## 1
Amino acid sequence: MRTASRRSFLIASSGLAALAAVPKSWGRELGEPVRPYGERSPFEKSQRFYRKSPIPETGASGTPLQDSYGVITPSALHFESHHSGVPQIDPAKHELLVHGAVEHPLILRLEDLQRFPSVSRIHFIECAGNTSGDLASTPRPNVQRSHGLVSCSEWTGVTLKTLLEEVGLKPRAKWILAEGADACRMARSIPLDKAIDDVIVAYGQNGEALRPEQGYPIRLVVPGWEGNVCIKWLQRLHVADQPSMTREEAAGYTDLMPDGKARMFTFVMEAKSVITRPSGEQTLHGPGFYEISGLAWSGRGRIERVEVSTDGADSWQAAESQEPRLTKAFTRFRLPWNWDGKPTTLQSRCVDETGYVQPTHDELLAVRGKNATDHYNGIKVWRVLADGKVTHV
Amino acid sequence: MRTASRRSFLIASSGLAALAAVPKSWGRELGEPVRPYGERSPFEKSQRFYRKSPIPETGASGTPLQDSYGVITPSALHFESHHSGVPQIDPAKHELLVHGAVEHPLILRLEDLQRFPSVSRIHFIECAGNTSGDLASTPRPNVQRSHGLVSCSEWTGVTLKTLLEEVGLKPRAKWILAEGADACRMARSIPLDKAIDDVIVAYGQNGEALRPEQGYPIRLVVPGWEGNVCIKWLQRLHVADQPSMTREEAAGYTDLMPDGKARMFTFVMEAKSVITRPSGEQTLHGPGFYEISGLAWSGRGRIERVEVSTDGADSWQAAESQEPRLTKAFTRFRLPWNWDGKPTTLQSRCVDETGYVQPTHDELLAVRGKNATDHYNGIKVWRVLADGKVTHV
């Protein structure tokens, strides 16, 4: 499988010359005792990135994808995006109202929701505006800033289908308005077909309760669709015969096309991939073996395959995809690579199970133009310089 | 699929009577701003359990399985077990020595390991002594105390096979001694067949660096084998022609049989399942619909199926298993259940892909006796009382 021959992985490494004798401060005395709740090592400094702002209650913070492993995003590093800050909700007092075109309107508390049949599924959530920095005249310098508004968790909750069966839909039911309990009452409309397909009213994330930034105590998870539809701090589901045309769907999350018309309800996040290692602001320490690793995901289903080019798109090699490849979830890809020390570029492109191929920057702009920054999913190219530094193109 | 009819899920719930109006303190003002690293809600109190001890540096703390969702264990709640405390290791100074019957002995630092081809796989780790409390005259009152020494994470690292190919094995190589950097130099021997099958030298857990209690910066993950073999704070791999007969394998982790002989090197954790909800010390609030949910796992491969009895083992129903069912990983199972309000018992049994069936308490004791407390995997029975209280049997 691996193209590198034995003992080639570490040719360039400086750490193998001799049996070193580094003075260590541990292992001579008893360590820390057992404890009720763990924290990461004080040596680990990875954190979400956000721009300083006079109103930090509306904004986003990005996941440090350059430090990511596998397909699960640690909840503490899951990207955030909110429009009026994170409400501090007491779950015992929080209520979810389900009403409108239903036979039996309900108010549900968390403990009620936890009585329903449950599901757990691994899905990514991605901000509609993720990767929009690649349209800027100065692209973002690293993968956290260019692609960090996407993360992937194991979500647990009740399917919206189960909940809608419980309240009983009236014949005119066609759209569901979901509303959050944050100060701006963030709200989006979801068509019924999607609502009963795979949407989850989630209370669990990565094995424990949702984190506050992720909608504690309950949120919608709308697999494969733009993150703003996955309403956090969910307090109301209103069933109606049409979309509610909220601010966020009539103006906010629309895409202005070159002809002056705007695309609305562009829910699906199309197939995207990015190399996370090596990536911008990282450094290769001399020629030799490196593993190229990255993430791919598609709002339309499973990732079928990922290809990587290390020679300016002259040739493409099939990367190995981590199994199992789950629908609407991160797929980790990996490719062994021997760097010859010369300047080059690295890029990945993915194909999803529908056959959709991730477009190049130019292909995408030819269709969409530059008016709309949301839903950009062009191929990301990293440049490797002769000194090993990796930069944006 | 679900046996419960529409609107039956919440018949017994008290929260649905009318449109309530609970005063809330949130949603009127801007919430918390974006932040670099998330914490759980202050309303969440779930924590690992451990007995107070004059030497808390040797001991174990159990995962609160009663609060678990899905199959991923949050790293902060992953069970701990250590013999001389958790060393605080500076990863820049930590070294892994690979030597013995090898062609090219090596010292590797974390940054060297991260140059190798990597894998990420979801696996459980279970303490050999997990569930031993079910042999006590007074069984543990809840699932955290009876079964909490098992957890499941997505682990990332280099396969031990890759590492051994790098150093080159000499013909006499048959066993690998793994040694930790903790004060007791915890050490176990692993046969070569297993070492090159699926063992991982891991540096990542659930998308980020290992947690200190889980062996930061590197540990062994030996899929399906007792946790003490998964050496944490790994600092040495010594290749030899036989096991080293360390204290932990010559005395510590052996199983005394009824005939006075001891089983040694009983590595594999056999198939086990337990209902986590409802479970001991939880309460059912009146007759009606409940989802029975639990976890199953096997050190020999995938869980084939899980069956649940709600009537004292007179009949068994097939539970639904969460997909994908991964090898040597947690499988979450779920079964819809309408409680008629009468006292009963709840129990689960699992079958793994080899056809191995989880035994009853009595079946297991007939073979193994009570001398050995490790590797107990009998069926766990919870009693439901008329007032809804759930207790151990």
## 2
Amino acid sequence: MPARVAVDALGGDDAPAAVVRGALDAVASDPDLEVLLVGDPALIGAAARDSERVRVVPAAAAVAQDADPAEAVRADPPPSVAAAARLVRDGEADALVSAGHSGATLAAAVLLVGRAPGVSRPALAAVLPGATGPTVLVDAGANMDATARQLHEFAHLGCAFAEDVLGVRDATCGLLAIGEEPGKGDQRVKEAHALIAADPALRYRGSVEGRDALTSKVDVIVADGFAGNVLLKTCEGTAREAFRRVRAEATGPRAALGGLLLRPALRRVRDDLDPDTYGGAHLLGARGVAVVAHGAARPHGIAQACRYAAEGVRAGLPDRIAARMAALGG
Amino acid sequence: MPARVAVDALGGDDAPAAVVRGALDAVASDPDLEVLLVGDPALIGAAARDSERVRVVPAAAAVAQDADPAEAVRADPPPSVAAAARLVRDGEADALVSAGHSGATLAAAVLLVGRAPGVSRPALAAVLPGATGPTVLVDAGANMDATARQLHEFAHLGCAFAEDVLGVRDATCGLLAIGEEPGKGDQRVKEAHALIAADPALRYRGSVEGRDALTSKVDVIVADGFAGNVLLKTCEGTAREAFRRVRAEATGPRAALGGLLLRPALRRVRDDLDPDTYGGAHLLGARGVAVVAHGAARPHGIAQACRYAAEGVRAGLPDRIAARMAALGG
């Protein structure tokens, strides 16, 4: 059975053009993928009608960047991201992808698709390019003010994702802290450390620090959404700035030649550190698959996000998470 | 009048040898610097007696890495870092430098030297190598669970440091958040945003994100100690890992030659991003100057930390901060 992905065609800096282009590219490259483009048919254009595996579902408008997410997704008529989420809720689609207002995408998934049983707060999973494989960072920015108990849940969500979608075997996890001593951090981290360390179902390796973001010390880094987002964006920004400075410093004929000869290596490292590799972040713990794509996503990023959502569908991610949380509760 | 720096000779991974060597190098390079080496005279050795501007002050032992900081610095006899802090308290030294247990150094400064009037929580100032100049990050890890009011104080501490020690003119500040929208983050960040934005004595530029760590968007990044430490260590770790990967990818004769030709540029960028540039972090808001050096500091790092402490003394940092906080309270 094909994976059916509802794409918010109106969300994103370059929507609808880049979104439609990316979704069509994803369909062209994956014979088992169906896409439902949700938005104004006049804006989506005729290109979308060329494939049997593309359907256009009319919806009014995107959510404005300054809108309140919870209010926006409940508006009538529903904005495009809410209409897409309803398709998942009603079983007409398996996954939701949006590059629009990320808070609205999260709200649509949580409020309209709903939480998986046993999950108190769905969380965003970003994937960092670790030294020896992918590292899941959860929560990457969905939940501010998460409790210690929720951090414990995030550990399970992240390990389920690493194992079931990324194919990591026996995923290990660590708790983001500010020293190697167990649980060094604020009060919440200390409490979460105690909960996670006492859970025999997790392969807990203790504290990890910001400097371990890319070293593959653990497969899953558990953090609250604030610290997790700081880590993610600092990682992206530092890599970008380091390469910018190498370019800026490579002046004069010797260095220019050196840069030319070294370019393939520099490109490989830069591309490896590029946040667009995965096209977005999975929201873990909803009743369906949801991928928050980058607002500035180009067609390539949207296509990646659609493929990435399909991987979650094929892995049966929501069911896997529900089963894992049920075992935890029992 | 020379700057008198009390150095914890027994604190640090390579103490006392690296610490003594670094302190003597600092004295040799700065005719207006006096150093008091605090620790066991037998361990410090005879080299320290070669200069008129070096004194050895006997003290028992360093603080063990697993000790409780507040208890350790109050022990009798006092450990070396506490003995050094007492010299500052008693007016025999102007500054404290330690590469030992950082929590103990903070505790010694706060409990023995004391807080400046108007400062509720002294905070650590790390300096990040921004694109167009230094960027102060405060708090870099001293205070977990800081309140919104304390974050507001950190903004003043950071701006005082940027202007009075680093020579930044009309320092601007931003609050670490997770989106560009004002105050996007947890509850504490929202409250701190309101306090800082309403303060006409600050040049507040709104939210900054992890991706702005090195872009010089603002001169001072305000954060609580947990998120600040995550940002600092992610920055260091990502830069290190990016260069490691470039080296690892630069295989084959073409790339090797390219690496050779580009080496000066790569070195400049790497050195610029090296956390040892400043030798440590100033603790802002104590009644004296205190610099927390890296535990793994080599002699070069210790020498830098001593010079850096002397800069704080010459700038009259504690008095400047006290004056600024008095104006804020009035």
